[in-house]
Amino acid sequence: MASTFETEVARRRTFAIIAHPDAGKTTLTEKLLLFGGAIQLAGEVKAKKDRMNTRSDWMKIERERGISVVTSVMTFEYDGRVFNLLDTPGHEDFADDTYRTLSAVDFAVMVIDGAKGIEPRTLKLFEVCRLRDIPILTFVNKMDRESRDPFETLDEIEAKLALDCAPVTWPIGRGKHFAGTYHLTQNAIRGHDDQVERKPVHGPDSDWVTHLLPENDRDAFVEELELAREACKPFDRDAFLEGHLTPVFFGSALRNFGVRDLIEALGAWGPSPRDQEADTRIVHASEDAMTAFVFKIQANMDPNHRDRIAFARICSGALTRGMKAKLVRTGKALSLTAPQFFFARERITADTAFPGDVVGIPNHGALRIGDTLTDGEELRFRGVPNFAPEILRRVRMGDAMKARKVKEALHQMAEEGVVQLFEPEDGTPAIVGVVGGLQIDVLRERLKQEYGLEADFEIARFSVCRWISADDRGELDRFIAAQRSAIARDLDGDPVFLAEHGFSLNYEAERWKAIRFAAIKDYQAG
Any bridge partners for residue 247, and if so which? Predict the structure, then answer.
């Protein structure tokens, strides 16, 4: 018989939802949570004060603009399985947060707008999933609106993503005539998601199916479905787990079609926690010794308490409340007195967390992004990326008396990964770096709301930032001395070179052949 530990690991499904903004990602998240019993009512994502706020979008700027800009972590159960769902930012200005989140999941759901197909942001996120060999299930959303021919969407997935498609369900009607889904292998139909069991039928020409469609659409539907069976690949779980094939589901998250099909597949086909690569060896989820890594820090989730939560993915063993873990970066022991499971703003104490689980660890700055926790073993997990910012801004203090407080607040938010903070070697004011302009808005908003501070960010003379290193330490020191006015230190104290534009970066790279200029750095790579 399998042990309790093995059973618990096998029950876990840890996944993210990726999508272009407005494809319906947050609405789908809400409906999945509704199935899991985590919420009573799902809130449509609209920036209207008279509607319920979407529960996974908890930051003020998210509620005002109707967008997701931080990663929410939510745990729920369905049909005997434990799902850890990471709702990633859809806005491209927060790509770095999304990339870090994808380091903590075992598979992903790709949401595609049925009318728009694959959009640029979807394509970028898919490429990250492919780099990490993350299996993907596809949900073609908004079939209740005027949409593309399903074959066109499947062709686009195969052409743009080089990914085989295996449609599992097929839409019964489209637009205002969308009435449910037909399961291609089971020969069964489901209308609204409140229909728990599918209705078996003898085929697409069954009266149970055709009565759902306008009379002039019935023959075309039968032909379309038979073509899908003959022309499309059947689902192959091995090919799915290897990242070569995606099962495709159709539906409308807003109108409650197709979501139950998807959540059943997440449980049946989604992989249980997989092995993780560390610097010295491969860590297996089935091991007894506890290991975990921090992929996100979030401060002030509860404005009533100046809390600071580190989100950690359990990789092996069991994390139990009250245990002491080794923080590998410092070598010190860390007491895990109150680990927590999350549903967005709501949280419960986690007495025991298993591989695949994501827990929140309250701390006062001891934990940072990329940290590894173990039972005592000296190993570090890799692959939590830090990207060179695309926008650099010089910090200008409105009130010199509050300069120290602003600096402390920026330091804390840099540890969260909200921004990157660079301290110039020549003693000039600090420079913040972000991937997108909206991050500056979030930074300004959070300084005001959470710290009561005003700060301005003016355009710096630099526009390009690269981490620098060399095999010859003396050569690196000579470069730093020669370029002192363009050198700064990041949060870890590592040197960065600031260039006015790409041309000057390339010019210096040509002059200093022994220096490496890197656009990506692992958190705490040293």
Answer: 166
